[in-house]
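Write out a sequence, fold above all:
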Amino acid sequence: MISGSTRAGSTNSAALNTVADVLGEEIRPVLYQGLAQLPHFNPDDDHDPLPGEVARLRGLIAEADALLFCTPEYAGNLPGSFKNLLDWTVGGSETSGKPSGWINVSSAPTGAAGAHHALRTVLTYTDARVVDEGCADIPVPRSVIDPATGLVTDPAVRDAMAAAVRSLLAAA
């Protein structure tokens, strides 16, 4: 699971943590938390030995049965730090054939459509297998996130997230 946000208290990270909470018995979720530690992508550095955090990221992707993303939109597109992460996946083969999906938590009028269109483009380019049933628009207002646990509390939202992830896992 990869959050496209570096923000503390991000609704995107809350969504992924909630997925882990809801489906913890069914899956072995691994939330990648090194987004801010990735070096800026440079094609000259995309060879062995890879920078340490890049090698760790690619190793986690290679070990995963499926990939679940949750990213905000920034200025109509993917946030730069998340696009940087995706750029580091282009030169590897770890995403090839990997079932992939996302939960879009935006409650903005545009629904973060630009970010998710760009995410689909990059995943398709890296030969990931986008599972449409594992891609869901589930608005998560901050009011349904418990400040103490950082988890989504609304049962309908939790159920919708679980259903999307189960669909993704069924394709794995």
Helices lie at 11-23, 52-63, 80-90, 113-125, 155-170. Residues 35 and 85 are 7 Å apart (CA to CA). The chain is about 40% helix and 10% strand.
